[in-house]
Amino acid sequence: MKTTRTSSKKSTAKVAADVQQNTPAVVILQWLTYAFWGWAALAMTILSSIVASFVISGQSQGVEPLAYFIGAVVVILPIALVCDLIFSKNERNHKAGVALVIMVIHTVLYALLAVAGLASVVFALISMLLPTADTTWPVVWLLTSLVATVSYALVLLRIIYPRVGTKLRLLVRTLLVLLALTAVVWAIAGPITQSIVRRDDNYTQAAAFSTTGLISGYAYQEGTLPASLDAVQAYVDEGYYVDNESQLAIEQSIANETITYKPNIQKPTEDATGKTFYYEICVVYQYDDPVRQEGSKDFYLDYTTSSERDSAMPVLNGTSDKAGEHCYELYVTVPDDNGVIEPAKR
Fold first, then answer.
1. Which pLDDT tens digit goes with each residue over 133-147?
2. How far apart are CA 180 and CA 70, in angstroms?
3. Is 277 in contact with 224 (CB distance < 8 Å)?
4. Tell me, what DSSP letter sits at residue 274?
5. No. of H helices and E strands in the chain?
6. Which of 157, 260, 277, 329 is most buried, most CB within 10 Å of its CB?
């Protein structure tokens, strides 16, 4: 009997020693560790989703949001690791009291997110099997859901099976870090690099569309076409409305000689609606871009004194997704009462 009681006391003492001590510092570190791992998983998921949408669609413009989520991953991941390393010195395999409550709350939350990610994987796979014209977004959704499922599954594994002092702890941390680094490298090597490489092409495309609006505004104001792109630029410098990004695109494209303008490619015509002027814009692209806008593009100035819009709809004839020079014949119709329409000044 004495042997049994002694063994029972030793077992109880061993379990008690393996229960985490709920001091304020340990409890705070536990909460921060679980929370920051969850935020890191969320940041990785969102970053992967944005990168996948850019890579699969082939788009190279509008990558600015990537910087925020790259920064989020780069900042949150080290914080999660540091909190985890400090917490691990006081963590035990068994939780009780407040520590157990914190573990249950985060376990339920992350389990729901992991299951939601798994359900999204199935939904994306089914969507890919259905006949649809657009297969881009199901693929993006699939990749995003996979990252979410794996990320939160690893965080769950870290919380439910702490395995203090074992290789499992190191393996979970390593996998989470590798997943985060993969997302960051993918973002930098993919969309961001492509955006930098194709910056001049993006400027040229934006300048082509913005210039048509400025030429229309100039025609309304002056009753004729500008003689050159320098006249268009001077029109902008006088304060007539164009956003800063478009102004930069025009300046860069003129400086790089990737956009040219030829006024009055045919004699103006006149009818009851007003006088129509014809001109040509040529652009030079360095790279092929399958998602570059093609067909037609309407670009209008904003007016403060009238809700009327330019009656001309500049049509960019031909495709511009290939590298090389592309020329577009456009027109602008100036109505007889053009004097009542004044372009807004900045």
1. 567 788 889 999 999
2. 9
3. yes
4. E
5. 10, 4
6. 277
Backbone angles phi, psi at 19, to 5 degrees: -90, 135
- Residue 82, both tokens: 């540091």
pTM of the model: 0.68
Q: Are residues 213 and 290 in the same domain?
A: yes
Quote the tokens at residue 258.
Answer: 């990737």
Residue whose pair of structure tokens reads 């009753």 in the numeric block: 223
Q: Judging by DSSP bridges, how do beta strands 274-285 and 324-334 pair with one another?
A: antiparallel
Tell whether 165 and 227 lie within a shared domain.
no
**Lowest-confidence pick of 40-49, 148-157, 307-316:** 307-316
Q: Which domain holds residue 65?
A: 2-197
Quick check: is 115 in a domain? yes
What is the identity of the amino acid at 116? A
Look at the chain and count its residues.
Answer: 346
Spatial distance between the Cα atoms of 59 and 191, rounded to a whole number of angstroms: 8
CA distances to 62, 74, 198, 199 from 59, in Å: 8, 24, 10, 12
Amino acid at 219: A
- Looking up tokens 């992991």, which residue turns up? 114
Contact 338, 312 (CB under 8 A): no
Q: Which residues pair with 343 in a beta bridge?
A: 303
Total structural domains within the chain: 2
